[in-house]
Amino acid sequence: MGLPAASKAIIALQDPTATARQELQRAAREIRTQVQRELQEQARANAQLPPAATPPTPPIPPGVIVSPMEGEHQVYVGGTGFPVNSGNEIPPQAVDMAMGFFFTVVAIIIGLPIARAFARRMDRKAVAPQIPQEVTQQLNHLAQAVDAIALEVERISEGQRFTTRLLSEQREAAQHALPTGSDR
């Protein structure tokens, strides 16, 4: 009865007429009552089952603290804070520490050669690149040209100093040779 009601509900969603809406509401009521019936039947079935038998708990000696942890009980003796192993169980903390140690060793074994190779590659890239021979020749020629220009500029400036000194000497000689206004 649940399947035809659901198919009618799908049809009602596609057809928005008043009768389709009524059909959709009726199908929803049927599904609701069916779910309620199933829940009531499951509740009755669970109520009829006998309770599960629990083993009797042994008495706890004085000075022992029992603490629940992850669904199990761990026993702490004398308030020391250290759990007591009841058997040959490995504590989960020891397993975590061992796994961390081995992962660290593996990371070092794999990572160290990779780091060295990366460092060597970086060192090789740091070497100055080779300059082509023709560029080196052009730079040498340019340096020679700059030196030649510097020599020529020095010669020109020496010539200007010489000319300036000659002119100043001629002016001084002319001033001494001319009579002053009081000599006249």
pLDDT average, as an integer? 78
**Poorly predicted segments:** none
- What class would the helix/strand composition place it in? mainly alpha
Shape by Cα distribution: elongated
Q: What's the structural blueprint in terms of helices and strands?
A:
Elements: H1 2-14, H2 18-48, E1 64-69, E2 72-77, E3 83-84, H3 92-126, H4 133-177
Antiparallel strand pairs: 1-2, 2-3
Helix pairs in contact: 1-2
Tell me about this structure.
The structure is a single chain. The protein is mainly α and 184 residues long. Helices cover 67% and strands 8% of the residues. The protein has helices at 2-14, 18-48, 92-126, 133-177; strands at 64-69, 72-77, 83-84. It has a 3-stranded antiparallel beta sheet, with no helix packed on it. Helix 1 (2-14) packs antiparallel against helix 2. The chain is elongated. The relative contact order is 0.03. The mean pLDDT is 78.
